Amino acid sequence: MNKQYIEKLAKQIIKLRVEKGLTQDDLASEFVSRSMISLLETVRTDITVSKLKCIADSLNVSMKELFDFE
Fold this sequence. Notes:
Blueprint: H1 3-19, H2 24-27, H3 34-41, H4 49-59, H5 63-66
């Protein structure tokens, strides 16, 4: 993925997580570690679609909402 696109995705995930009053630990699951969430939010890694789906599920939002930043 393009770095600017990942930055936008990261900001959207942070926004949704904070709106729901969740920490990175709260968002972590058996499929996505807290360290992976941290790396994604600080734009230091790329992420698979399956892991994004896990994050969306944990946030109780659709995949579309994760990408609703443009």
